[in-house]
Structure formats: structure tokens, C-alpha cells
Amino acid sequence: MSPKKSRQQQGFSLIELLIVVAIILIIVSMAIPGFRQNKMSVNEASAVASLKAIQQAQISYQLNYPTKGYAENLASLGSGNLNGAACTPAPVNACILDSNLSSGSKNGYKFQVQGGNPINGANTTYGAGAAPERYNSSGVRLFCTTEDNLIRFDANLGGTTTPPNPTMCAGGGFATL
User: What is the rounded distance in angstroms from the CA atom of residue 134 to the CA atom of residue 23?
Assistant: First the structure.
């Protein structure tokens, strides 16, 4: 009887590699929803911070332009998208908000501002709203504020991507944050 030489295995077999890849894919697929949920939470926190910036900008605008009252729209609070050029404050672009926010979109949320209730040409009220750009992807909830400086939210069960107007915000359907 001749002794049989045993073959030494070198490396991994194709089946072993496929099993490892399958396990990695399963782990990654379980982690992705958590990452997306975290990203939406960050976007929603940014939307609330942006509405607070809009509140402060509206107060500043009203003090700087008393004949105008509150700003009529979001662009009036910003730099006029001057592509990095120096901003000269004026009622149509007060240079108070950064150009990203004053353009109406920031960190997965769309923003809108409306001045209202003019008396002698000066807006005595305003409303600012924020809605996700892509529902259930960039965010879920709607946020808004008015001249009372309270941030309000709605669960947005309808899945809208249109920012709430001042009437919706003050109408009682939104809870205070």
C-alpha cells in the first residue's frame, strides 16, 4: 500500500466566499434603514434651526425697514443670490439670511415665507413654512412659524411636500414644538 498524499487547501473556496458576502449584504441591508432615519432626523432638526433663523431675520428686517414691516418673501431676507458678490442691504434683499436658505431649499427641506396683513404698506404678520423635498426620504414632518415666534409641527400623514402657509400654521392643526 502506498501512502496517499493529502492535498493542502490554499485560500477559500468559492462557496465560502459567497457565504461571507451574503452575510455582509444581510448586515448592510439591516443597517441602511437606520442610516436613512438618522438622516431624516438631522434634516428635520436643520429645518427647525432654519425657521428660528427666519424668525430672527424677520425681527431684524422689521427693525431695519419699518415702512415695510415683515418681509414679503424669503428672498427679501437673503442676499439676492449674488453668487458670492458683496451684498448691499435693501428691502428686496436685506442680506440677513444665507443664500442657501433664502433660495428656498436647505438640507432636504423646502422653505416659504409670506408677509401679510399690510397696514399703510407695512406687513404686520408673516408665516414661514418648511416641508420635506422628498417625503419619507429627506424628511417627514412639516414645520412652521408666525410672528408669535413659536415653532409648530405637523406629522404630515398626507405626505405633502408643499410648505404650510400662514393660515395653515395659525389655524390650530399644528402642535407647538
Answer: 31
